[in-house]
Amino acid sequence: MQRAINRPMKNVFEAADARQKQAKKRSLCVINEHFELVFNTAAATQIVFNGLLSNLFLNLKSTEVI
């Protein structure tokens, strides 16, 4: 008799746990998408600056008086 009573409660807890996991996954997807945009922008900016700095360094090196 005790098992018959506990089974519905177990189902309720399992369902609640599943909903929490789904909500957490959705939340993490939103965060991941946000930071993916930020990191992609930062990586592109770094590539541009590295290119500018290397060009500047090469220009300075070529104009040195020996």
- Assess the beta-strand content as a share of residues: under 5%
Q: Give a quick account of the main beta sheet: strands, pairing sense, barrel closure.
A: none
Order of secondary-structure elements: H
* Poorly predicted ranges: none
Could you estimate the helical fraction of the residues in percent? Answer: over 70%
Describe the protein:
By secondary structure, the protein is mainly α. Helix content is 92%, strand content 0%. The chain is built from one helix and no strands. It has one helix at 2-62. The longest helix is centred in the middle third of the chain and has 61 residues, at 2-62. The model has no long low-confidence stretch (mean pLDDT 76).
Task: Give me the secondary-structure topology.
Layout: H1 2-62
In a few lines, what is going on in this structure?
The protein is mostly helical and 66 residues long. 92% of the residues lie in helices and 0% in strands.
Pick out its properties:
92% helix, 66 residues, rod-shaped, 1 helix, mainly alpha
